[in-house]
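thought: fold this chain, then report.
action: predict
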Amino acid sequence: MRRTDRLFHIIQILRSSRSPVTGRALADELEISLRTLYRDMAELMAQRVPITGEAGTGYVLDDGYDMPPLMLTADELEAAALGAAWVATQADPALARSARDLVAKLSAAVPPELRPIILDAGLKPIATTPAPDERFEGVILRRAIRDRTKLQLTYKDGSDKPTTRIIWPLLIAYLNKARYIVAWCETREDYRHFRTDRVHSMEVQHDRYPGRRKALIKGWEDAMTSKH
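observation:
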């Protein structure tokens, strides 16, 4: 569960409870450690969510609190609608469904006078090539990127030569005719790009890769800049 989803879930749990909820109970329901729970509570309080209480005694959400309304400008809504429409045609099936769900949720959350902008923004991305044919579930790759989990790929290069690699997936690059996994390759000890339609199998490893993903992406960007 992403942190933003987790913070929203904490608010929902506290809102539905008539008595203080202990940190342990919250952590167990969210399937996270107490340390993570305490960090989440500190973040919510920093965002001025009216939560009272502390570790050991329980947390309470003040009566009458509600999530702030979603206030976006017409341009921001059009940007969201266009982005979701593009994802719905170019991303893997699970992410495409999420893009369509996003449009539905946005239309329900914005004020009525702005709803037509979401439902008919007048902006339509047109794909001239079909989405790549992939042999793995896109959600597996995206989860590995979020969780910093190593992956083992069975892959065929441009010469159709099979190879097996252990990679640290950093991001997915969307090009006009293909999608690429940008990763650190343990075999080559360097950054590599893997076309998703050439991946024949993908296996999640038990261990996470070391270092910060943000720093690794910065290293990749620097490496790409030095080559041009």
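thought: worth noting. The chain has three domains: 3-61, 74-119, 138-226.
final: tokens above.
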